[in-house]
Amino acid sequence: MFRNKAKEIFSEFVIEHKENVYRLAYSYVKNEQDALDIVQDSIVKGLKSLHSLKDDKVVKSWFYRIVVNTALDFLRKHKRVQIVDDIEIHASIEETKYHDIDLERALEILPLPYYEIITLRFFEDLKLEDIAFILKLPVNTVKTRLYRALKLLRMNME
Predict the structure, then answer these.
(1) Which residues, in sequence order, are CB contacts of 52 under 8 Å at separation 6+?
(2) Residue 97: left (phi > 0), alpha (psi -120 to 50), or beta?
(3) Which NCBIfam families does the record associate with it (predicted)?
(4) Alpha helix (H) residue ranges in the chain
């Protein structure tokens, strides 16, 4: 019985937050088709691991963790080095609704651990505790990385 309820809750969450999930995947791979593949793979993984979802109140952070891990696995598998030119930056801004080209460029050069924290905190509007859960880090590590990421962003923007 719980399985059917969990499946229903998960399905509703995915439908309601599909744009955010896509944007999260896209923020890692910077490619529309790859991001769609990651979202699709994440949904399949989520359906297969619904049994591990103990509390329906944590669906968002639980599924975001799956999306992040799937994106990181994809990047490791393809060993992608992102080369960003002006066309990609412009397309990325339209896709993710970042309106500041300087901010976009500053985000692009952040190391991945800092980029993840900034993306999850400010563009996905997640709490520090949820980010810690998604990235499997202590909350204090998330706070430290957020502070350092913001400091690096300020330096890169100047």
Answers:
(1) 62
(2) left
(3) sigma70-ECF
(4) 2-16, 18-29, 32-48, 59-78, 86-96, 101-108, 112-118, 128-135, 139-157
Prediction pTM value? 0.70
Taken in order of first residue, the domains within the chain and their CATH numbers are 1-82 (1.10.1740.10), 84-158 (1.10.10.10)
The length of the chain is 158
Give Cα separations from 5 to 50, 59, 72, 132 (angstroms): 10, 12, 29, 26
Cα(first)–Cα(last) distance of the chain, in Å?
Answer: 56
Asked if 114 and 131 count as a contact pair (C-beta separation under 8 A), the reply is: no
The H or E element containing residue 100 is none
Tokens standing for residue 86 = 């002006």
Encoded tokens for 141 = 């590590």
∠ CA 94-70-144 to the nearest 5 degrees? Answer: 80
77-127 pLDDT, tens digit per residue, is: 876 444 343 334 344 444 444 456 777 777 888 888 898 898 888 888 888
Give the rounded distance of the alpha carbon of 12 from its chain centre.
Answer: 19
